[in-house]
UniProtKB/TrEMBL annotation:
<dbReference type="InterPro" id="IPR052636">
    <property type="entry name" value="UDP-D-xylose:L-fucose_XylT"/>
</dbReference>
<feature type="domain" description="Nucleotide-diphospho-sugar transferase">
    <location>
        <begin position="11"/>
        <end position="108"/>
    </location>
</feature>
<protein>
    <recommendedName>
        <fullName>Nucleotide-diphospho-sugar transferase domain-containing protein</fullName>
    </recommendedName>
</protein>
<dbReference type="Pfam" id="PF03407">
    <property type="entry name" value="Nucleotid_trans"/>
</dbReference>
<dbReference type="InterPro" id="IPR005069">
    <property type="entry name" value="Nucl-diP-sugar_transferase"/>
</dbReference>
Length: 120
């Protein structure tokens, strides 16, 4: 399950850049993590950064976050987010949508726990 592939490194203190296999980097000679880890960037204040999915349906509102490409910083907020996602595995299986459950949890954790979410 892809939730564990993200959760375990976060729990060990590693930031995670998750991407589906159909994502190809145009500049393979550059480390993509430098873009996300640049402390002088405005992105450094976000706990999770998601690619916008392009689907503007109510099902994925308000973030329309693409669960196939995102960056998560290793901190207590993201560890709790992905632990919660693991605990909601029954919904992932029932709805057949990892994305829908994740987007709902993003809203909840942003509101209740101050998770800083960026859609790009």
């Amino acid at each position: 399950m892809e939730v564990l592939c993200v959760l375990y490194p976060l729990l060990l203190g590693y930031d995670v850049l998750f991407q589906d296999v159909d994502v190809v980097w145009l500049t393979p000679d550059r480390d993509p993590l430098q873009f996300f880890q640049d402390e002088s960037s405005k992105l450094s204040r976000f706990d999770v950064i998601f690619q916008h999915d392009g689907a503007n349906s109510i099902r994925y509102a308000p973030y329309s976050a693409n669960s196939g490409f995102y960056y998560a910083r290793a901190n207590k907020k993201t560890q709790y987010l992905f632990t919660s996602l693991l605990y909601h595995s029954d919904l992932i299986m029932t709805w057949d949508s990892h994305q829908q459950v994740l987007v709902q949890l993003l809203s909840e954790h942003s509101s209740l726990f101050g998770l800083n979410v960026k859609k790009y």
